């Protein structure tokens, strides 16, 4: 079915970035249509932040993002997003710099964006899967499984490949290639690592503070162990590198530092002090209070010491072995849990083909790309929704100027 109108802007994807762009563009008077394959706008928002939506972070900067491209252009301002949402009625809660809606419900953010779209009378076409975009004589045609739309400009806000059940497709990458742009390799990010390492039999169920290192990348926080996976904030933040290596068949081991707050020298001193003070204790007893019990047992057994060995029997070689296993416990990994379990896609539409002030394609005038479909991924902490917002705002300002 053909829609008779010619829209000023047709947005492919009514996720966070598409909704933000629609709101800004319609407020400036552009005739906007939003298309999504889901039956609900902003469906993915409902799952963010464990259902609470961590939408931005006080600590902003390019160091929280990854891309194959130079990220000097990133100058995200969390206050702008906080104000934008506040205007829609969403009051923020600042938890140590991590921002959530005060209601603790991601639904609040989705509903507020939907209310704004309705208030602005934006045409929304749900259950419409975009299959093609063409351009002829300065006019775009956007084809879905149900409709054909005509528009003066098009913005691809179709997201990445993560969590397919929440709505995802490769349309953004396909259209970028169709319009002579390149797409970088993609990998699942913000996801746990899978492992068949025997140590997980012992560590399963543990949640422990630690610093996780994969190659040159480290992150600190709560590490979680199950029988077949290592996850938690620090693993998620570096998982993109595991994802790319898995794809390339070049996986390395993951290392956990169970005492990141002590350097090697301090740790040995701490161990020696404990052993001197508890001369008549076993090694297990002497480590009480330093680690989770299962972690202590695993470290002791990997250091080839029996749990009931008296500390008076330990020599410097034992202390070296303990220190090594505490500071650099090696875990063989098999890869990540994959795109379906991932929160974000690393890689995407190559930024070399995007004007980074306006988010317009450099190969096709009037065609814009925003949000996760691009080769930018943030770590955990509200950075990905912030990027979705900032890129949408950049596109909006340009479209409004052109209008
Ligand atoms: C479980 C989970 C938790 C997360 N938690 C957080 C968090 O707390 N903080 C944070 O910053 N980030 C979080 N993220 C990441 C964040 O949700 C995304 O980075 C962000 O939503 C990207 O916005 P976007 O608009 O680019 O894409 P999306 O929000 O994915 O929107 C893209 C839209 O395009 C639609 N679409 C795709 N293909 C087509 C097509 N062919 N035709 C029509 N429509 C199409 C999709 O249905 C979707 O609605 C989380 C992600 C997940 C999965």
Key traits:
FAD/NAD(P)-binding domain; 2 domains; 31% helix; alpha+beta; 7-stranded mixed beta sheet; 403 residues; 11 helices; 23 strands; elongated; 7-stranded antiparallel beta sheet; binds flavin-adenine dinucleotide
Question: Outline of this structure?
Answer:
With 403 residues, the chain is of the alpha+beta class. It is 31% helix and 24% strand.
Let me know the number of strands: 23
Distance between the termini: 28 Å
* CATH topology (level 3) name of the largest domain: FAD/NAD(P)-binding domain
CATH structural architecture of the largest domain: 3-Layer(bba) Sandwich
User: Can you say what the CATH homologous superfamily of the largest domain is?
Assistant: FAD/NAD(P)-binding domain
CATH class group of the largest domain: Alpha Beta
